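step: validate -> pass
step: tokenize input -> pass
step: predict -> running
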Amino acid sequence: MLSKEKGSALAEVMVSLLILQAILVAIVPSFMYSNEQTGKNRCKTIAYNLANEKMEYIKSLPYDSVGIGYDSNGDRQIGNPDGVLRSSENINREGYNFQVRLWVNWVDDPFDDVAPTDSDSRDYKQVKLIITELSGLLPKVITMYTNITRQSQEQIAEGGNIHVTVVKLDGTPIEDVDINIIDGPSSPKHDLTDASGQCLFPVLDPSVEDGDYVLTASKEGYVADSAQKTATVNLGQTTEVQFVMEQPGQLIVHLEDLLGNPIDKNSDLVLENTYGEELTYHESTGEFVINNLFPGTWDITANAASYETATALAEITSNGTTEITIQMTPRPSGNLHLNVFDQNTSLPVPYADVKITNLTNGEFVTSQTNSSGTLEIQLEATMHRIEISKENYNTKTADVEISQSGNTFVDALLEPVAQYGSVRVRVERNNGNPRNNIRVRITTNLINTLWELLTGSYAPGECLFTNVPPGNYYVQRYRNGWQAPRFITVVVGQERYVRYRY
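step: predict -> pass
step: emit ->
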């Protein structure tokens, strides 16, 4: 009987443990979830309190101080409007880390009955505040807006305004687009578009000339319909500027000849869209990969060395790739047969460097004459400039027109670079009449003769010593022995003149 009671008690204990385990399994996750929710709610409360605290601080500032004056590092940043606020800062509050970002924009009230000839469009300021919990505990950011108005009568100011609107192709406004005025009387200036895709640059100095204000728009992941837009600012008026932005597409272009072979010559593409944006690209071959193109239809003009200009159309889509092939027709061509000779010896000049420039498009090729001083090459049938050079020769340049479907023969004479000088000697009587058959020599020491000639061998009463190495020498004439030494210095490429009269 006792044994049965012990067995029953053990079974009751086991059942109790199972029930307790089931309760714990159910309660613990609920407890943990409850703690997590409590933490999130506490974090959210702290974030909202921080946002309200920041907004109250901004409202307490003098009107002229409400604006961005410093960046996230605390360095000076002139905002639009300017002020004392930081554009971004990290704040730790009760163990939670928050990022606080601020935007301040001018707003032109459309109901103040003075548009569009409002000399001062700074009707009020709109402040946007975003708080982000940095650990990811709060999946959503906290966003607040407030408008700051001037307490006293509106300030009287003179100037003009630029109102910028940024939209997608379907008209949807784009927020946080970086708008910069990079040129103009009041440049530089910077602002971000608000939730309606707008920003205002008020009280700008009037334009000195039409279109002297230059604006750009940029946002990560987007491309504008035009890299720059111009505006003219008039006193007391608002000028409207609109940018259209979309996520860009990619264009791949292959240039081929009529047989389908890739073109491997210098090539250019000019792209123009319906917004008037024109872009130019250059490659050493006919293969182009172009990124960040605005969606829409682009007119393409292709040029390649020795090929006729070709055109095509390409439709670019957002986040898409458009790939096209453009076939190009070769321009008429002919053959150049170039022979290069030494001007003094008439011997061929082998392995001379040759540069041939197409005077129509500026393209050039380089080559060399062969061992026989000859170069044969096919060229476009047009004017070319041929430049021939080789060590110890003066460079030779000539313009040549290549005949279509035929051979153009060119003989070029290269002049050797001067390595010697010359000495011309004249012997004459007192009345100036020449004396012929007078011995003349060149020596360095007045003892040994280096070269000797007779007058009359070059011209009446004259002789000419050529290929004289540069240096110092003496010239003497012979009459009952070598006499009348004249000291000379021979210079490369120059002639020295000596005259005897007796």
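step: describe -> The chain has a mean pLDDT of 88.
step: cleanup -> pass
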